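Deliverable D2.4 — example input (structure tokens):
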């Protein structure tokens, strides 16, 4: 069976002092004058949004009704050593109204579901925290 495309996001980015990022569906339109650390903020926002969706899916799969919307603060660090640049990530996830053991299980399951988590797993240091 062929892979089924669920959604495609396309964004055009221009560099330089008049730089910008614009999605073809007009959802995203940001000024990105250089130098600007936007890539890390955009990656953190995209990963967080995907992760929250994966967490909600994990809850539905377990037939758990979330009493409040989950939230995530995602930090992307760019580090440098003799080998060059690399990333590190920390996701601080809130799952209000759910006991800590269940919330932790949902976070761990979401990490296995989320395509962004899958893309970086084993490639960067990731810290997943229940806060």
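Example output (designed residues):
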């Amino acid at each position: 069976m062929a892979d089924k495309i669920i959604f495609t996001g396309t964004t055009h980015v221009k560099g330089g002092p008049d730089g910008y990022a614009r999605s073809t569906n007009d959802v995203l339109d940001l000024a990105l004058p250089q130098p600007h650390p936007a890539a890390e903020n955009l990656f953190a926002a995209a990963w967080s949004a995907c992760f929250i969706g994966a967490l909600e899916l994990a809850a539905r799969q377990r037939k758990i009704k979330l009493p409040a919307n989950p939230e995530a603060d995602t930090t992307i660090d760019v580090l440098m050593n003799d080998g060059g640049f690399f990333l590190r990530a920390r996701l601080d996830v809130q799952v209000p109204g759910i006991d800590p053991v269940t919330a932790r299980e949902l976070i761990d399951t979401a990490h296995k579901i989320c395509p962004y988590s899958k893309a970086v797993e084993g490639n960067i240091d990731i810290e997943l925290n229940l806060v």
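The beta strands are 11-14, 20-23, 29-31, 71-81, 84-94, 125-130.
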